[in-house]
Amino acid sequence: MGLVFIRFVFIVFVTLTCYFIRPFGLPANFDAGVGAVLGFSIVIFEMQLRRMTLPRLIGAAIGSVLGIFGAYLFALVIRNSIPAGPTQSFLQIMVMLLMAYVGLVVGANKGDLLNLSALGGIFGGEKLSEKTYKILDTSVIIDGRIADIAETGFLDGVIVAPQFVLRELQLVADSADSLKRNRGRRGLDVLQRLQKMASVNIQIVEDDFPSVREVDLKLIELAKLYEGKIITNDFNLNKVAQLQGVSVLNINELANSLKPIVLPGEIMKVFILKEGKEYNQGVAYLDDGTMVVVDNARKVIGKTIDVSVTSVLQTTAGKMIFGKWDERSGYRNDVRNDARPVMTSALPAVETKVVEAKKVTQILAERPAE
């Protein structure tokens, strides 16, 4: 509230000064109006400066000084080549304003590249801003799991949402296809949720690369510029970025690594959902979507049984678990999918790897998309 009052007093002071001094040679009322507009513009400029980081402020100051110095050199050339008069004065003023403006904008834009931590002292607190950028891809925003991960506190540093990614999200949200429209709106909701998290530092950057047309390649160039990492679940973007030396955090790989570990011989309780491809075979799913193929389980479809794990197969699409049901263990007439591994001992099932490998090709075709 005190800052608002100070800004108001400043605008009133500039207005009254212009009213009494009349620096523009206009009637007092017009000079006061020009003074009010000038004071309001200065306050707006000050509000924008408060939002800038220290590296950007230093970059803007350095850029402005270099721009003014360059304008002075241009002014010498103009003074020696153009006769004195209104044209010469106009060109000198325009060159001064142009060079100062260009230096200010370019310096502020490149200010994040300054390594202030190397200076030590009062700039030591800026060391965390280096190499801690996480750049969001469109696919991972629409997926939505990034919000849950960020809420747990596993993501440190600055989460970057590029402006060109927001434009792509907006195009998807405005699509005539209802499915695409819902996906785009969900992505915008996820971004809004991230912004509301107090523990998450998210920034929307304006950096763009007009010479690059594809969004994926823009993300790679942005990651190189900020020396950050790309967060995505796009398999193709993952490979292309790694080929160009850009680090990638893949949400799908994280999800696969968090799936429960089971070993042959363990007993797990699963709900047999449907019939398998092979004879007398049943199929179940764990809570995380992992497929469990159970031999001798066709007769217990729709029931919860104890299964002895025979082997675990890791594929590019995920993990598959093979098991066998012993009829002597019985079953529960339960419709709940309480598919959690129970760490108890069991007799190892006699099942060869060759037979299981033949089943994989047929079973993967019916595996639900993760």
Give the CATH H-level superfamily of the largest domain. 5'-nuclease
Binned strand content: 15-25%
Distance between the termini: 51 Å
Count of distinct structural domains: 3
Specify the number of helices: 12
CATH fold descriptor of the largest domain: Rossmann fold
Tally of extended strands? 12
Secondary structure layout plus pairing:
Layout: H1 2-21, H2 28-50, H3 54-81, H4 86-109, E1 133-136, H5 138-143, H6 145-152, E2 158-162, H7 163-173, H8 178-196, E3 201-205, H9 215-226, E4 229-232, H10 235-243, E5 248-250, H11 251-257, E6 267-275, E7 281-285, E8 291-295, E9 304-315, E10 318-324, E11 331-332, E12 340-342, H12 353-364
Parallel strand pairs: 1-2, 1-4, 2-3, 4-5, 8-10
Antiparallel strand pairs: 6-7, 6-9, 6-12, 7-8, 9-10, 9-11
Helix pairs in contact: 1-2, 3-4, 6-8, 7-8
Write a structural description:
The protein is 48% helix and 17% strand. It has 12 helices and 12 strands. The protein has helices at 2-21, 28-50, 54-81, 86-109, 138-143, 145-152, 163-173, 178-196, 215-226, 235-243, 251-257, 353-364; strands at 133-136, 158-162, 201-205, 229-232, 248-250, 267-275, 281-285, 291-295, 304-315, 318-324, 331-332, 340-342. The strands form 2 sheets. The chain has a 5-stranded parallel sheet. A 5-stranded mixed β-barrel has the order 6-7-8-10-9. 25% of the residues are buried. The protein is elongated. A hairpin with a 5-residue loop joins β7 (281-285) and β8. It starts with a helix and ends in a 6-residue tail after the last helix. α7 (163-173) packs across α8. The longest helix is centred in the first third of the chain and has 28 residues, at 54-81. Residues 334-361 and 363-370 have low confidence and may be disordered. The protein is of the alpha/beta class and 370 residues long. It folds into 3 domains: 2-113, no CATH class; 131-256, Rossmann fold (3-Layer(aba) Sandwich); 267-364, no CATH class.
